[in-house]
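2024-03-11 09:14:02 INFO receiving multi-entity request
2024-03-11 09:14:02 INFO entity count = two
2024-03-11 09:14:03 INFO echoing inputs for audit
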Amino acid sequence: MIRPRAVVVVTGSELVRGDRRDLNGPFLAGELVRRGIEPARILIVGDREDELAGALGEGLRADLCVVSGGLGPTHDDRTVELVARAAGAGLRVDEDLHRQIGDISRAFAQRMNRPYVDFEQGVRKQATIPEGAVSLGLAGTAPGLVLEAGEGVVVVLPGPPGELQRLWREAVEAEPVRRVFARAQPPDVRLLRFFGASESAVAKALADAGGDGDGVEATICARDFEIHVDMYVQPGAEARADELVSGLAAPLERYLFSRDDRRVEELALDLCRARGLTLATAESCTGGMVAERLTSVPGSSQVFLGGIVAYADEVKAAELGVSPELLERHGAVSAETAAAMAAGARQRLGADVAIAVTGIAGPGGGSEEKPVGLVYLHAEGPFGSRSADFVFPGDREGIRRRAAITALHLVRRLLAHRRDEPA
Amino acid sequence: MIRPRAVVVVTGSELVRGDRRDLNGPFLAGELVRRGIEPARILIVGDREDELAGALGEGLRADLCVVSGGLGPTHDDRTVELVARAAGAGLRVDEDLHRQIGDISRAFAQRMNRPYVDFEQGVRKQATIPEGAVSLGLAGTAPGLVLEAGEGVVVVLPGPPGELQRLWREAVEAEPVRRVFARAQPPDVRLLRFFGASESAVAKALADAGGDGDGVEATICARDFEIHVDMYVQPGAEARADELVSGLAAPLERYLFSRDDRRVEELALDLCRARGLTLATAESCTGGMVAERLTSVPGSSQVFLGGIVAYADEVKAAELGVSPELLERHGAVSAETAAAMAAGARQRLGADVAIAVTGIAGPGGGSEEKPVGLVYLHAEGPFGSRSADFVFPGDREGIRRRAAITALHLVRRLLAHRRDEPA
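2024-03-11 09:21:47 INFO inference complete, emitting structure
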């Protein structure tokens, strides 16, 4: 079975100029991979006619082309017109759409106290679709569309990510799209997540286990200090995949922290919840990032009580009870201060477990003895504690992110391991 | 003058599969726009030979092609080989590079207690470059490269964003790249940043002022609750650009908060610094996001003292002095609680100004009376206070982000306006 090939075309001047990062390409690519379709390329272009026409021409040579953006009411939104041209289809005003979009625009004009005549041209433009195209419903006043073109199928979706995702759910139910999906076999996926191992150690373990191929495609991806291995397994290659998973897991077992894609903040919260423990944070250089990550998880309020962002030393003393003598003797960036911050957070916030972070995120504030990137972490619970220190590479943002992720892993390790195990 | 046209080719299986968002395309596109080069498209492909070869073939037809990724030591990193093929150039082992990469790998092998022979093939592979290519220096063991190919120039850079950005700074100094830049005219850029205005109101004001064109290209971009207008002004069109700027600024003056691209957290910190005021936060539903944004700014420690993430009601009471009676009477999500949190943060953390956020981020916890998305904000300073409430649309992440950004704008407005001005 040959995997159907897809091209994603994303249009938007602000995207091709680098003013904004595209979210739709990765979303659509992930959706396609999950269904066994190969996203051969993601093409980001502006709204210049020749560039967009070229991209759509390429897209229409694939089995499935998904287009994002360029559906607005103004003249520089050319996607529909150029899709029709690339597909060799004429354009027609869809009467149903014209009525629906007209109603919405009339209500809007009234609310804004503007004459409807200002909108008429835009309404007609947005109700104009390629001959043979089927509407997926409206996003605002723009219809999503499906069109069969030659050997392939093209899906046209609006640019705002929320709207795109909503109309994509309609697109996957459309008959022409279902026919493309029917020719594909969704792959089996195996996930392995490592923390503390190097990317090259993981790559070597994979090579030693025979490497990928033979129906298993593996990607190794370093994200901050985590290494993510995703294996896409074709039907019939399950045994080979099991071998590779064992080959990776055995030499790297102490670094393997998950076989699913829960983030470390979810794992830390789940471990607390399973043990009936509450959690608090005390942060200096990460400035609230650890708390922000924990509270990004729905339901975190069952476990997470709160945190102190103790940026100034006075706040470390007043809110976390770190003694001025200790701060004076060891400095705010020290193992002793990290331990005192964790103890203070547990006591002040009444939490069972606390994680503390103090360090130098830069660019200023470093010294020979305490360089930029130096970070002390301390996790304390009712049954013991763990501490760690690092000199993280990277810029301010990278240092803070790595410190926050490592702090969450320290909580995970404090809770996942037995007392008698080494850190 | 015709603007030179550039194509950015980004390679990486994890990117084309949607497992990770590409950062290099937007970075490079922004760099090119700033120099007056038109980034015609950003092309994201995996490491499949035919797909990557096709993308590079396209790239080499542009005046400048910048390629990111696929420079590793293993067989599936094919960028150099395929660039050479697309350029019709042979491959050669560069003796200097071979020695340098060999030295690095020998030291690494020793540190890892592995025989150097394991690395030999990879070293030779990474020292192999197209005939006529010039090295930009190493990122780890991978060289960045510049090559003239036909009418165009191709720059090959490593995938990790930090390394790519470092070698890009070398690439812009390379002679063939400078020659492309010399044919371009960096555009004049005008920035306008609005908060609280709708995208359509900004679009209408732009249209009423005559719209873009005639040497001015404008992008209007909604980011959370901010509307960003960037105008790229060709030489000779400065007067037209001034007209458009006035046309936009006049009707929307009360929403216009900046004419440069400082983020709102920078503006808030700058306003505090200019007045000699210190700042603190008290957060519930945003869980530390406001503090995290403030501390992302280098030097924020001169102004920002710290914050309390008061997720549990007990923490609101104990750490911010919000009275249990008030919490009981009005609820944790109320204007009264927001005001008490701000007052508590000022007092407890000894700050001049405090901003408080409390709300329901969802997906659970909403009711008919207090729906998901309801957020109360309160900013208090020595000379007065401002409060606001919203029902933000979107998911948990979107509600939290909008709440955090709006909180920072509330601080900005508290400090930017005179006492006698309305909120």
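2024-03-11 09:21:48 INFO post-check: Chain A has a mean pLDDT of 92.
2024-03-11 09:21:48 INFO post-check: Chain A has three domains: 5-182, 188-258, 264-416.
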